[in-house]
Design a protein that fits this description.
mainly beta; Methylamine Dehydrogenase, Chain H; four-stranded antiparallel β-sheet; about 5% helix; 4 helices; single chain
């Protein structure tokens, strides 16, 4: 990509103190809601932190876009399956927002086995005057409260109080999966959602928790009679953004299947498949025999699949590339973007340290004209589909100073290395960007780098990227929290409440 002047600047960032960071502090998912006003993150400690966007102020217009902590709560706790003698981690695998219908917000969060529906609401008034206490503050005899002898019976009234944000579990969807849940997706009918594990996809109704409808039977319920014959697993699934009957799922073999639930109550057949002689909708790019190697099957496994906002395209991420597919052309991908092709020579060492099994996510921008995905060394890549330009940026603590310039990074494969380049041998594979999300209508992105969260604002696509602020929150002591928690995520296990003082007019 050609060099050009830019103004990528950083306002602030949500950073957790490395002296206190633990495995539980590592961010495992990040997701904007449908309006972009809220941003939720989940971590390996089972906690969910919700950030709210700062409202526009005439006195401080530069603060528009900054995200402050809105609510934090413990979504999942560690459990133990006594029947199978297995520990169930509290790690949050996915978070998905439901469209806002009233003043409250709803989101789905899942660990390996259980999906929960959470309601996040505000309360700034409290009821008083229930006639339970007398004038001296002593508890009254209940038998006298409604008797004629009590002449001071009053109607309860609402009194103003400090604004409180409460997170309460409304539904718990459990016992639906034998294997680990890897993805959840809300249907466009807003009544159902699906949860996906390695071998099965279940369809749930948001109002029914005691049973699920098995979406697939023979083909997607791919558990063989003999587990030694298992050749692939399901890696991700998502509903079509507009057609409530259509969804897609990907597999570890690098294939993508599009399904139509109108075909049958149990989708034992896909709506279409390729090659065209079949009856299944099947997207898979034939492999070049000259590139065949021991690692071919591993790096072809799809870690993420996303519909475009228009519903016309599919985007998939495997280990080395991002591919865009047209739903009307299944023979080959419409576009292929190399994310870190310089790692081909490192596949052996990446296999030995298990990095080759990392699952990177990919996201669209609001207009489907740009895509983004992560890489190693805290690098993340952005591709412009119209101009075919791309850029590599780094999310790091060194670049988190206010108004610091965020410069493109380049990786040198061999030979002489320029001053502004980094050698492929110097990449830190312990620092990786696995989870990213893009604001649904603006050029704002959120990037999770291990236990740090960065939010960037792209003034001009691929030309001006600014990191906008997240308010750093006070770290409570372990005695206050009941555990050692990362900065900005500390809370009480017994009450999922975050207090906020009313903002001055």
């Amino acid at each position: 990509m050609e060099e050009e002047s830019d103004n990528r600047k950083i306002n602030n960032s949500f950073l957790r103190d490395h002296n206190y960071a633990t495995e539980a502090d590592i961010i495992s998912t990040v997701e904007f809601n449908s309006t972009g006003e809220l941003l939720a993150t989940g971590d390996k400690g089972g906690r969910v932190v919700v950030f709210q966007r700062e409202q526009e102020s005439k006195s401080q217009p530069q603060r528009r876009g900054e995200y402050n902590v809105y609510s934090t709560f413990q979504s999942h706790e560690p459990e133990f399956d006594y029947l199978k003698s297995l520990e169930i981690e509290e790690k949050i695998n996915k978070i998905r927002w439901l469209p806002q219908q009233n003043a409250a917000y709803f989101l789905l969060s899942t660990n390996d086995k259980t999906v929960k529906l959470w309601k996040i609401s505000e309360r700034d008034k409290r009821p008083e005057g229930y006639n339970l206490k007398d004038e001296d503050g002593r508890i009254r005899d209940p038998s006298t409260i409604t008797s004629l002898r009590c002449s001071i019976t009053q109607v309860p009234v609402l009194r103003p109080m400090d604004l409180m944000v409460e997170a309460t579990p409304r539904r718990v969807f459990s016992n639906g999966h034998t294997y680990h849940i890897n993805s959840i997706s809300v249907n466009s009918d807003y009544e159902t959602y699906m949860s996906t594990d390695d071998l099965r996809i279940n369809l749930w109704h948001l109002e029914i928790t005691n049973r699920s409808f098995t979406v697939f039977l023979d083909i997607v319920d791919i558990k063989p009679a003999n587990m030694e014959e298992l050749t692939e697993v399901i890696t991700a699934a998502e509903f079509h953004p507009h057609q409530c009957n259509t969804f897609v799922y990907s597999s570890s073999k690098g294939s993508i299947r599009l399904c139509d639930m109108r075909a049958a109550a149990l989708c034992d057949n896909h709506s279409k498949c390729f090659p065209p002689t079949s009856q299944k909708h099947f997207f898979e790019e034939p492999e070049d025999p000259s590139n065949r190697s021991f690692f071919s099957e591993i790096i072809s496994s799809i870690s993420d699949v996303k519909f475009s906002h228009s519903g016309r395209y599919l985007m998939t991420r495997d280990y080395l590339t991002v591919k865009v597919w047209d739903l009307n052309m299944e023979s080959k991908p419409l576009e292929t973007y190399q994310v870190h092709d310089y790692l081909r020579s490192k596949l052996c060492s990446l296999y030995e340290n298990d990095c080759i099994f990392d699952k990177f996510e990919c996201v669209w921008n609001g207009s489907d004209s740009m895509i983004m995905t992560g890489s190693y060394n805290n690098f993340f890549r952005m591709f412009d589909r119209n101009t075919k330009r791309d850029v590599t940026l780094e999310a790091s603590r060194e670049n988190s100073k206010p108004r610091a310039v965020l410069k493109p990074r380049k990786v040198c494969v061999g030979g002489k290395r320029r001053k502004d380049e980094i050698s492929v041998d110097s990449l830190d594979f312990s620092k990786k960007i696995l989870h990213t999300t893009w604001h649904p209508s603006e050029n704002i992105i959120a990037v999770a780098a291990t236990n740090n969260l960065y939010i960037f604002q792209d003034k001009r696509p691929l030309a001006g990227i600014t990191l906008i602020g997240l308010e750093r929150t006070r770290r409570s002591s372990p005695s206050e929290c009941g555990q050692s928690a990362g900065e900005g995520t500390c809370h009480s296990h017994s009450a999922f409440i975050t207090e906020r003082s009313p903002q001055p007019p």
